[in-house]
Amino acid sequence: MEKIVFRVIIVAGVCCLSTKHVHIQRSLSWADARKFCQANFINLSPLTSQLEEQVFRDTVGEEGIRGWIGLYWDQVNSSWKWSGGDIFSSWTDIYKDMNSDDKLPANNLPTANNIWWTRNKWISLDGTSTHWFFCLNLTVVQQEKTWEEALEHCNENHSNFTSLLSKTENLLAMNEINKTGINEPVWIGLRYLGDRWLWLNGDPLVYQAWSQGGDQDQLCPVTRRCGALTKNGTWENRDCQEKLPFICA
User: Quick check: pTM over 0.70?
Assistant: First the structure.
């Protein structure tokens, strides 16, 4: 709780606090915006698929909101990459409903290597120009609780249990766990209900990170019906009455 209070005090110009994505109404270069997000939240927001962008749009809401996101041109590896995360190559998915003129310019433009998001299109800009920006907001709570108790804590003090919609979000959450020194798994908003696993907040379960060849009980669990993220980035199904740290969004 102290961490959240600290954030509220120091982060002037914040819109949509206590959500998974926070709009910072402060003009910074892309590099300085990333430093700000890393110091006060997790990182610049990743939007690695149409699903993730739709969840993002639903979170930030208003028309006219725009700003830096976490995508940049990695000159060393000659590829677009998400800050703290995975390589990005899904231009076809992102621009499916857009005119070809709205697509990013050629990758060989060295001064246009960071991405500025608007509701209508993504624009590559010189990263030294200053703009508002978006941060991914996840909080690791080290107090150990059952899954239901953790859910109640997240609902009362934050927004919800977190969902992890992509490899990049999963990596960023894993890195945040490792920063705290936690060695045990942490609860996430993943639950087995009826005959399937689902995100409690209603987000579609598309990306999955179950351990390779994992436990057969995960396919049709009897008692271990709650999902947890390990420090290695894999998911495990655990007994919901077990007391573990957890992640809120």
Answer: yes
